[in-house]
Design goal:
This protein has 382 residues and is an alpha/beta fold. It has helices at residues 8-21, 45-59, 90-106, 119-131, 148-156, 186-200, 216-229, 248-263, 276-287, 306-313, 326-341, 358-361, 372-381, and strands at 79-84, 109-114, 136-140, 161-164, 171-173, 178-182, 205-211, 235-242, 269-272, 297-300, 320-321, 356-357. The protein is built from 13 helices and twelve strands. The strands form two sheets. The protein has a six-stranded mixed sheet, with helices on both faces.
Length: 382
Amino acid sequence: MYPTYPHRRTVLAATALLAAAVPAVAGCGGGGSPDAGGTAAAGCPAVLQEAEAAVRRAESTDTSWNGPTTGPRALPGKTLVYVAQTMTNPGVAAVAKGVREAAQTIGWSVRVIDGEGTPAGIQAALGQAVTLKPSGIVIGGFDPRPTSQQVARAGAAGIPLIGWHAVSAPGPSTSPPLFTNVTTKVEEVAKASADWVIARSRGAAGVVVFTDDSIPFAGTKSELIERRLAACPGVDLLAHKNIPIPDASRRTPQEVASLLPRLGRKWTYSVAINDLYFDEAAPAFRAAGKPGAGPPFNIGAGDGDPSAFRRINSEQYQAATVPEPLSQQGWQIVDEFNRAFAGRPASGYVAPVHIATAENSAGATSWDPKGYREAYEKIWHG
């Protein structure tokens, strides 16, 4: 799920960060056309070496908690309202579940109000949330700018707001006023997905990128993905397919069916800014007789919802995803509220990127890193 927000300075900063992270390609040998197996020699060995090391780190599941270990003890009797963009969005729903679980642990109550995916529904839901006068409100997966009147009412009532994917960057926000925004960093997610293609293909791939250019955050992500892929001359961008997310179920099968005969064996990899594109693309791949295990080998630079994990684990037209740790982010939201209520600053924690594959997910349907529950319980209860 991607909200719409015109963060030009954030876009430029993210692009600059990734540009700095991409090693110079000068001195690298010429490219070469990719093949279905991705066995050609890399056109830029330095980039390949860096990508392989980054992917190894991101695919590791043997990681310890690197988030906060200190903070205020649990304040009693607090109430939260989670305003969801839509509870039919698996990422939004999974974070709501994490908030509820954490709230039960800390001893608070939570109410979820579903915005049902429409501007009018979201405005009404946030307005209802403010009227309830809770201790805090979660902006669950939508841009709060179109709800500026409701946001102003919350501010006037002294109700802190915390976002999940509410703006493009993690951390506190002054416009819109958020105590903090919980999300991974777009430049890190983009780089991880592109590095996976570079590493798995050994620097020789033909790539199709699926995105929604109408959403600045998604458009920035695909731009960063393509910039990183361009660091290897042996990686060819075959197509940039702009499919608005609301139209994905209708247009993605048509676009894939059109691309397959035109690109043929050159199309060996795909990257999408959200996993849902591969859910919609699967019937077209299947109808064309493409094997579920690939090629093309597909990676989602998106939420990592349960359906994506099921496709990955069953080798059905998706090989990997760069998932959000949705439950952990729900717990983080509760901890951030506890800091806000105690007059403390936001923790500043941003979850590191992870790449999930059939090999490292062990049949799981979400990315649920270790240690955060115990760490937060220790902070809250000692």
